[in-house]
Write a structure and sequence with these properties.
The chain is of the alpha+beta class. The protein has one domain. It is built from two helices and ten strands. Strand 5 and strand 6 form a beta hairpin.
Length: 155
Amino acid sequence: MLGNGRKRLGNTRSLTRSLGNGHRVALHAIMIKPGSILMNRDAVRPEYFQPEGDPCPGSWISVAHNQTPRLLEANLEAGGWTFFYMAKAITGRAFGFTPAKVLEAALGRLITKAKQQHCNALQIDSVATRTFLGIPFVDVDAHPRQIQKGMTFNG
């Protein structure tokens, strides 16, 4: 629980819904969790950043990596890559009753904000669900990132 009634979906691979009999069903193929990296499909990226899962909104993809953030940055630097981190977090929020569409809308808003900052990637910080007057919504917090060769920001 995050406070103010927010529930953290931290270790889940996708949003799920209870069927009321103790079973849960996955509602979306976009697999995000804290630490997930979404990247513009057309951006140049290291060979070990391979697409995973289904495409995200706006021609972005979730990229597979199995490294801690510190190790990831060290490996990128060793290969001549820079992984710029924008200090201000951004939030994508969407309301609705269909969790898959709500998550997609929230991700779409995040991607739009990242593009406005001329960044080609997002690092997900948290995914949380809440309700307001009985209407469910999702908040996805992330930091815009820029992955590129060289030390000068080319966004």
